[in-house]
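Researcher: Hi, I'm a grad student and pretty new to this. My advisor asked me to get structures for two proteins we've been looking at. I'm not sure of the right format, so I'll just paste the first sequence and hope you can take it from there.
Model: That works fine. Here's the first sequence with its structure tokens right after it:
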Amino acid sequence: MKDININSTGSKKRPKTLDACPHCGTKLSPWEQVILSVDRALMCKHCWYRIILDVFEEDENLEDKSKE
């Protein structure tokens, strides 16, 4: 997995895409990475594991910006 970035406010920011399936470790193709970044969900073709990215952290950041 890629390194966790820290933004200007000091909070940790997770990468938007994964390089491999977290369950079986099979490398995701560039096209699968694009689909995962857009849809936030993808089924691994190798082990049929459902990969779902957590979107709640981004929603919280949007709410914080709207309060300011």
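Researcher: Oh nice, that was easy. Here's the second one.
Model: And its structure:
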Amino acid sequence: MKQLVYYIDKGNNHFEAFYEYMATDVGVDEFYARQLCTYFIMRGTQFELISNEMQEDVEVLVLKEIGRNLPGEDEQNFRGRGIHIEFRSPNERENYRLLSRIPCETHFDVIRYLLKDVVDVPLIGQMVVASTEIDEDRGVYVMYVTELKVG
């Protein structure tokens, strides 16, 4: 893997190159973590991942534009502060309530969470993953989680 390229599906089989990362700029672990996120936030706009492809040494992520990103409760910018995951309610009526935050040593630590359907949320316990995103604007991974119903 040498490159990760985001494209936006503009319809009618038209795809527009949107953003790219070179393997020399970010590690393979970050390439994989990004590919596992269902949503991508950049420049105040929310995108949904609709296709994850490979073309030789290039990782291709195809996005669909959803619209303006609505900010959640207690958002912080993590640029230059390391790798972090936020756990939030997926409920817009609750303003995407912040449940917990954790720092991570590597993107491989993030991948461990992104691969799961049920995760341990600090100080809360096990919760079901509803969706995941990389918020490029704030430099943070976000996991939207709901209660684990047993029985």
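Researcher: Is there anything I should tell my advisor about the second?
Model: You could mention this: The chain has two helices and ten strands.
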